[in-house]
Design a protein that fits this description.
By secondary structure, this protein is mainly alpha-helical. The protein has one domain (31-111). It is 56% helix and 11% strand. It has helices spanning 2-21, 39-49, 64-71, 75-83, 96-111; strands at residues 31-35, 59-63, 88-90. The protein has a 3-stranded mixed beta sheet. 19% of the residues are buried.
């Protein structure tokens, strides 16, 4: 009985960990344009990445699950609108996954010749 209760306590943490570090799932097949123009969001991302806020892009493309989480929109809503073409949402919060996407975009911007 004790083993079962320990397992039931650990499983949510394992699921949360895997959701951050495993490749995108089938529901992440499409990308959503995430608008970062909210000043609070831009400042939070800039602070987290230790960069000037002017270097943070105002829009990035993110998997549906990341976009849903930071925009406060249900995955199924974004998925339905994505089937009809490109979709976008406004970030209401940040996440480790979003910060990683922004960092990758910034690395590409600075690496490409202008």
């Amino acid at each position: 009985m004790k083993t079962l209760s320990k397992t039931s306590l650990v499983m949510p943490w394992v699921a949360a960990f895997l959701s951050f570090y495993l490749p995108a799932s089938a529901q992440d097949a499409g990308l959503v344009n995430v608008d970062l123009r909210n000043a609070k969001i831009l400042n939070n991302i800039a602070n987290h990445l230790s960069v000037n806020v002017s270097n943070v892009p105002i829009t990035v493309q993110a998997p549906i699950s990341v976009a849903a989480a930071v925009c406060g929109v249900a995955v199924d809503v974004l998925s339905n609108t994505l089937r009809n073409g490109n979709t976008s949402c406004y970030a209401q919060s940040t996440s480790r996954a979003l910060n990683n996407i922004v960092q990758k975009v910034m690395n590409l911007q600075f690496a490409s010749p202008q």
